[in-house]
Amino acid sequence: MGLFKRINKGLKKTRDSMSGAINAALYGKNEIDDDFYEELEEILVMADVGVTTATEIVDRLKDSVFKKNLRKAKDVKAEIRNICADLLSGGEELDMITVPSVILVIGVNGVGKTTSIGKMAAMFKEEGKKVILGAADTFRAAAIDQLEIWADRAGVDIVKHKEGADPAAVVFDTISAGKARNADIIICDTAGRLHNKKNLMEELAKIYRVIDRQLPYADREILLVLDATTGQNAVNQAKEFKDVAEITGIILTKLDGTAKGGVVLAIKNDLKVPVKFIGVGEGIDDLRPFNPAAFAEGLFEEDKDEE
After folding, report:
1. Is the predicted pLDDT of residue 303 greater than 50, yes or no?
2. Are 104 and 222 in contact (CB under 8 A)?
3. DSSP H helical segments within the chain, as ranges?
4. In the structure, what pLDDT confidence band is assigned to residue 82 with cuts at 50, 70 and 90?
5. Looking at the whole model, is its pTM more than 0.85?
């Protein structure tokens, strides 16, 4: 299945809800008036775009409608799509040039963190990269076991300790193994809960120091995994983690299971944190690098078969 079609399919629930409501609001309109703008803002807020971003989209649309003299419903909808794509653009590429590069993955249990790591590993391996995983979320035994299952499934190496081990020690051993085995990418599963902020900060700071000592010049991504089905709660979770961690990007999972896909706009525009990956299905290849244009297209277009 092509990229656009996969994303299009994954966004069906959001599209049916948001785009369908916009179509209804535009139906029979001879001119774009204040009533439509008010209705559009409400539709966007209901899709978990967030009040701030919804207001910005409406303001930019008003400006475009006036300057471009837009009157047809299809032109207005296309302009909304273009505004969304523009708001989502910037920072979505992974900053990983060095060999090895390090990815730390954080997020509360249940959001699809370990699954996302396994899918990332499979994607990178498919690209011809050598990947090694570190099971540094050591406070939940199931997290270690689950990551090992995904490592086997993706066909990559894994380093693990026993439950309750020091996460920084696992990261140390993973980096050592990665260097010895000439890994291109080291992915470490880390904090699986937003517990006491001080403890979390100390845990992450210790991990950062290990990386600084072992790989002082390595590119580093700190990715936060969020569950799209939780809508604005995902935004609030991101704010909490952002207070204690140097988050460089978001992995947004379960987009195929929600009508709240507009939350991507809230995360990118309100929090100024780029989305790096989106999960649009259960398959091992259903975690996709985030493409702003494809995402905006998927919010509004019914069918896309192109690669």
Report:
1. no
2. yes
3. 3-10, 12-14, 20-26, 34-46, 51-68, 73-88, 113-126, 141-154, 167-180, 197-214, 232-244, 263-270, 292-300
4. very high
5. yes
